[in-house]
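Archive transcription. Copying these from loose printouts into the bound notebook so they stop getting lost. Printout 1 of 2:
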Amino acid sequence: KERWFDPYNQNTYKGDRPICIPTDEEQERRRREGRPKCRTPRFLGLTGDDWFLAATAVSDTVLEPRTFPIPVGIQFPERPGSNDVFGKNGSLVFAQTFIAAASLVKGSTAYKPPDVEYRVALALQANYVDVPEKRVLFLDPTRGSDRFDYFLGVQEFFVDYHFANTSDRYDFYSGRVGIQPFQFDFRGFLFNDQQLGLRLFGNRDNNRWQFNAVAIWRLEKDTNSGLNDVTQFPRKDWILHANVYRQDFPVVGLTSTASITYNLNRERNKVEIDDNGFPVIPALIGNLKARNYDVVYLGYGVDGRIGRLNLSAQAYAALGSDRNNVFNGKEARIRSWFFAAEPSYDVDWMRFRGALLYASGDNDPFNNTESGFDAIFENPIFAGADTSYWIRQSIPFIGGGRAISINGRNGILNSLRSSKEEGQSNFANPGTVLLGVGADFDITPQWRVSTNLNHLWFDKTGILKTLRSEGTIPKEIGFDASVAAIWRPKFTQNLVFRASAAALIPGAGFKDLFENRDRDKFYYSVLFNAILTY
């Protein structure tokens, strides 16, 4: 007998069987067979015998002890008598997220695209943060050094419609409108988010060609959860994107993608204060003015394998104009570059990886060219991803800008932005260079262990020297070492437990910017994550 709560065996509520349609004939048949009435609402107007309901429930729990440079709250220090620029650096984050999602799908999707899909996903997060200093979590120092918050976000709300099949292999055209996930490249370097948009997509030549055309109107985000806030009017920030994928090009086993992305931002007259009281637009850097900018990203990437060598790589050129260089107030050209590659080699149950990333930096803040590369909304799956220190943690630019960070949380670029979620892109930044090695060990079908060691630098330090009024700042950020373990006790994704530990061993540049009297030898980031999925 089918049990609705069973995620492992066939279940109508996870799309294994079609749902019943409450026609008169169906109700009479059920009456004769002594079965319960069909309770699918009639107002949905469903017809046919190929409608499926796929319901999903997720519990995502995060516990995260960490350390990073924290400034002393000048007006109201947590410990009276503190007279250093830097305070205690330990902090704790706890976040519990519940996700409920449902898809109503027409069509047998085992071998062809769905005819129609309606999908909604809501996320409720409660989070708690405790830090040792005031004015880190709130602008108002009287509000203390810990914070509890919660928010309900709409992460997906879309309709997907299948226009036509174009071959007997089910090559197709489809369209999707609403709040939906977008990822512009293989690893999420440029844009990886769930946003309001229109997507036209399809494939050709037995799926060897795939294409996407996308228009996005960016939604506002909740400050502390990062979830979509549909109660606010969308931003004056629009994105047009088109890409094409070709399998087995230029060699068999390798997929290539070429893309063009246009980011149009018209928030020059906007003043945005986040939920904690900190200004995010304009960013409190340079002349303290918001900006209008137009940026075109030209991209090319590959993912797959060449013989025994696995390879994933992505390159971008960012070209455009910024109406307000925050250092001289004049219009500036945007000319910046990005390249990342991750080669890997498999030996039985082991995979050995390398990592290379270069994002150009700007060395002269006062000229008419901004050469620091910045993304639209990065969330990279690269070089350890959120288990590495530099990607997971955001480092405040103490003494160089107010409410400005060197890098963003779950981001790898040193962009000097006020906020990845709510702020503007910034192309006057020091850039990023990374060299790394790593390995993945599939010890058993239940256990995977991963290790990473990355060496990071700023590409250019001219902007840092200007903002900190220093004559020299070395480029070296330091070494980022991490180890992570994943345990799947049921051999499936229904129960997944992750634990990781990462340490940043500061280099000369990081020490110059952030070394305090305690002379911290390293900073750490520990992550415990439990994901339960129905």
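Printout 2 of 2:
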Amino acid sequence: MTVTQIKTLADRIEDLLPQTQCTKCGYPACRPYAEAVARGEAGYNQCPPGGAEGVARLAALLGQPVIALNPANGVERPRPLAVIDEQICIGCTLCMQACPVDAIVGAPKHMHTVVAELCTGCDLCVPPCPVDCISMLPVTGEATGWDAWSQPQADAARERHNRREARLAREREAAEARVAARRSGAVAAGSGADAGATAASGAATGAAAGTPGSAAPVTPSVSATDDAEAKKRAIIQAALERARKKKEELAAKGQGPLNTEHVSADVQAQIDAAEARRRRLGLADNPADHPAGSSVANSTGTANTTSPDTPAATPRARSPR
């Protein structure tokens, strides 16, 4: 049997299926099941929504005997309709994502509802609901299988499913394109930063060696790293200003910090580390932070010592920042 014959047979098999897209046959949709039957990889009695009449239709097409519906795939039943309890629904959209024919409408964190005319009764919206607010209610009385479903309904359901699949494919492609664009942008930014660093290094080396013309002119620019560093310094400086202002207010009221004595070794280590970070960032100490007699290294790394005639005062400890 050629590929063309297989595809043609799959098309004819798919035309006989009820198109509920319920996956009870063991395949993700009606089309994959039809292709599996055409290849002889699946039985033609695995579609519960089609029921006994559906099995008979497929048997006639395939020239096979009519057999019973495989109970492992389910039972023939009246067609149900999904009904959402709108008082319990939390608007998580999981049922909307599960519906194969887009029969559920709603928005995130808003009430969802089922469009009865579009629901195929596939049950797929029930398992993902985290609050168990969806019920499957039979709406066809005693009618089951193809007696509870029509060919126009099947054709419309197939069309909606195909449109949904096409939309999801477009959304996946768009998402992948956005991710690729972000990655390429990050790579380009990294390459630009590396090139700038290399050029600056070469210019500095040439200038140190005194080689004429070795230092190529570099267009002044501020890299993303420089921007981030400047922003960090500005934030730290603003925090220091707030702390100084608070300290001045406390001093004016005759109050002072309560944590300047009996500082533990761990806290003192954190304070020293904070001071080292400040010096590394080039943040000048405010003289008001260090009273006369203190011995705290300044931004150049030298110590501000007291007069030999004045006893050294105990360094004032800061809370770690």
